[in-house]
């Protein structure tokens, strides 16, 4: 019995666009609520949400029970954290702040069992192998891992070609907020120079045959990114959706003229 197949990885390989949402409420219950909203994938955020591994795992399980594919973003590209996440059953990882091919190469190795990598062997204890019940897990797990690396700085942009060329890197995700900040446009992910950098990066990622990912909280920008070739894209978050919905509801009831939206959304 092999490791479970990864439908998100298959969709990227077949170039089927995947629509996603950020999940940052750090609540398995909230993740389960959102998992019924019809997104192809949900990003469980271990970087900017107050998540530890047990809480990430609980949210992962809540989403995995739905038709949405759970992707976990770790706070950092750390071999030990990657090992723990894969052992709880995560098959698609998003790693932030990748800036060199050397860093990317080590991240690929951290997701693979020897001889192709350095992932520690603990499958007998791991939920990923159904606690040893998937008897061929060790020899079939590698192929179902989907590794997505974040390019969100000028250094990362400079390394896009080498990183995208690496075997074991399935997609590159452009982080517009941090990229804008690094480019000197803090709070302006929609700046024309940031958009130009995204267009250039998308072209290089596509040339390498890898998937192009991005996220935005602006629907017009989302349609632009889709037209520019995004293969997987998040178009909002649970947190900002909750802020907006509850704020607008009160304002509309109170008859306030123009419901104030969350100004942070523009800079996210
Ligand atoms: O830099 C970015 O943009 C991202 O990586 C996405 C943000 O971190 C996400 O948390 C939305 O704010």
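Q: What amino acid sequence fits the structure above?
A:
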């Amino acid at each position: 019995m092999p490791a479970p197949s990864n439908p998100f990885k298959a969709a990227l390989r077949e170039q089927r666009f995947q629509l996603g949402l950020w999940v940052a409420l750090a609540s398995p219950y909230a993740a389960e609520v959102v998992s019924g909203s019809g997104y192809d994938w949900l990003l469980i955020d271990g970087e900017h949400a107050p998540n530890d591994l047990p809480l990430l795992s609980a949210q992962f399980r809540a989403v995995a029970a739905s038709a949405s594919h759970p992707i976990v973003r770790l706070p950092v590209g750390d071999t030990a954290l990657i090992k723990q996440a894969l052992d709880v059953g995560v098959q698609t990882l998003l790693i932030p702040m990748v800036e060199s091919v050397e860093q990317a190469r080590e991240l690929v190795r951290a997701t693979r069992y020897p001889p192709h990598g350095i992932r520690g062997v603990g499958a007998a204890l791991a939920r990923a192998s159904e606690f040893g019940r998937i008897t061929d897990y060790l020899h079939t797990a590698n192929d179902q891992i989907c590794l997505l690396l974040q390019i969100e700085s000028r250094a990362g942009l400079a390394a896009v070609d080498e990183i995208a060329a690496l075997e074991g890197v399935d997609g590159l995700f452009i982080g517009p907020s941090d990229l804008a900040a690094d480019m000197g446009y803090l709070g302006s992910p929609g700046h024309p120079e940031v958009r130009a950098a995204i267009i250039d990066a998308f072209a290089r990622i596509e040339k390498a045959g890898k998937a192009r990912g991005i996220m935005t909280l602006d629907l017009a920008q989302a349609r632009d990114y889709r037209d520019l070739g995004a293969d997987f894209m998040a178009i909002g978050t649970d947190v900002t959706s909750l802020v907006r919905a509850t704020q607008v509801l009160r304002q509309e009831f109170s008859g306030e003229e123009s419901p104030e939206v969350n100004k942070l959304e523009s800079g996210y």
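Q: And what stands out in the fold?
A: The mean pLDDT is 95.
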